[in-house]
Design goal:
The protein is an alpha+beta fold. It is built from ten helices and 16 strands. It has two domains: 151 residues, Alpha Horseshoe (Serine Threonine Protein Phosphatase 5, Tetratricopeptide repeat); 307 residues, Beta Barrel (Porin). About 3% of the residues have low confidence.
């Protein structure tokens, strides 16, 4: 390796003499393109000193040589001069006129940042590189680099945004009337009575908007285990439609705004063959409703997933939550879920799951038992420029106690959703996603009969 590098250095020195038109060498010509190619070869052979010499000679000839700035950035990064490498990459970016030039400058900047430990910023520049990639092969390379940096980055952050017209933003009743307070009705009238539902008790339509942030810091990691510190923030609010404002004149969308903040710990463990993963999570947080403190919560969860076959995966999860209410009652919740998925020969993935949940509270009205079944299919192919996932499910919920019925409350909910992710529309590695959802709840108490239809627009990372 050293003899080869020595020959390369002698070649570089000769190239510099030729490029500077040293007397006696006038019969030999070496174009800037040839000097640039030699500099690239120096980078490939691990000779950053020689590459930098050539790049700076080219810049002495033409300070606007964009490619020379890229080479200089690469060379100084390999020399460990990260600040100077970033400055050179920034100059290359400023001079770039084509996608090929922008791609090269963005990758050079990402490499300098990643080598300096600034991996979150490096991921941003790799998204830029993928966005300006001149070919699919170049884009794939930027994505591979992104995933490599992402694995090394102790920080990982996910942002999501929601903009969704919704026919029932307040989970209001689809009925105009309902039997209410059976004890009082029996005392006053001797029989159940239908009461008119008005205002916020009725389904109100409007536009939902919101955002969520989830971030984790990997405190420690080995080949098979990881310990994470986690943070999350979320907020959603609503704008009422004209019809909703007419139905409930004294109500605003902010009356249903909901937000939460939490901090937590996560543990991940892979089996030796990487076919099984165990996760353990703990989370402490606070929620707000209509701008006021709603409840504090503590959540614990454990999950085990396993690949039964290369195409089939099974997972099981248990969760417990303790809710300490400020504007609501205290509730403890226990839940368990089972999920099975399989990738078919056609490339589609089918999945199904069962879950059960039970709440415990000093308030009998807040106690219920629920079972839910859900299935769906990921079509695994492009339809009209989109990847489509379809889902369908049913849930049964039973309350032993209700103020509106002597027999308690029984709800049956059916729901369906379809999500289309438009892979053909890509901006900095993000794709728009459209979700259409519908649900119907039938209850023995009319107040809880609900209908909901929503269309949500979101953004998903392509890699």
């Amino acid at each position: 390796m050293r003899p080869a590098r020595g020959r390369l250095r002698r070649t570089v020195v000769l190239a510099l003499w030729v490029g500077l038109a040293v007397p006696g060498w006038s019969d030999i010509t070496l174009s800037p393109q040839q000097m640039g190619a030699l500099a690239v070869e120096a980078i490939r052979q691990g000779a950053p000193d020689e590459a930098r010499m050539l790049a700076e000679a080219l810049l002495g000839r033409d300070p606007q040589d964009q490619g020379a700035h890229v080479i200089r950035a690469r060379a100084m990064r390999d020399q460990g001069l990260y600040d100077q490498a970033r400055q050179a990459a920034r100059q290359a970016w400023a001079l770039a006129d084509t996608d090929t030039e922008r791609y090269a400058a963005a990758r050079a900047m990402a490499q300098a940042l990643s080598s300096d430990g600034k991996r979150t910023r490096a991921q941003f520049w790799l998204r830029r590189a993928a966005h300006h990639a001149p070919t699919a092969r170049h884009a794939d390379r930027a994505r591979r680099d992104f995933r490599h940096v992402q694995r090394q980055n102790p920080w990982q952050t996910h942002l999501s945004f929601t903009l969704a017209p919704n026919s029932n933003i307040n989970n209001g009743s689809a009925r105009e009337s309902s039997r209410l307070n059976h004890v009082l009705s029996d005392l006053l009238f001797g029989a159940p009575v239908e009461y008119a539902l008005t205002g916020a008790a009725r389904a109100l339509s409007g536009l939902e908007y919101g955002a969520a942030l989830r971030s984790r810091y990997r405190m420690a990691q080995t080949e098979r285990r990881a310990h994470d510190l986690k943070f999350s923030l979320s907020y959603r609010s609503f704008v009422l439609s004209d019809s909703a404002r007419a139905t409930a004149p004294g109500v605003s969308g902010g009356d249903f705004a909901f937000g939460s903040a939490s901090i937590g710990y996560g543990f991940r463990s892979l089996s030796a063959d990487h076919r099984r993963e165990f996760t353990l999570d703990a989370e402490l947080g606070q929620s707000w409703y209509a701008g006021a403190r709603y409840a504090s919560f503590l959540r614990l969860g454990a999950a085990q997933s396993m690949k039964i076959t290369p195409r089939r995966q099974l997972s099981f999860a248990v969760d417990a939550e303790k809710q300490m209410g400020q504007a609501t009652v205290d509730v403890d919740t226990l839940a368990a879920a089972l999920r099975l998925s399989e990738r078919l020969e056609s490339g589609r993935t089918v999945f199904g799951g069962l879950s059960a949940r039970q709440t415990i509270s000093d308030s009998g009205q807040a106690e219920y038992r629920e079972v839910e079944a859900r299935g769906g299919v990921d079509l695994g192919e492009t339809m009209m420029g989109a990847e489509v996932t379809l889902g369908l499910g049913v849930a049964l919920r039973d309350y032993d106690v209700s103020p509106h019925s002597p027999t308690g409350r029984q709800d049956r909910r059916v729901f369906a959703d379809a999500t289309a992710t438009f892979r053909g529309i890509d901006y900095y590695g993000f794709n728009p996603a459209l979700t259409v959802s519908a649900s119907r709840t039938d209850s023995n108490i009319g107040l809880y009969d609900t209908r909901r239809f929503g269309v949500g627009l979101g953004i998903r990372s392509a890699f």
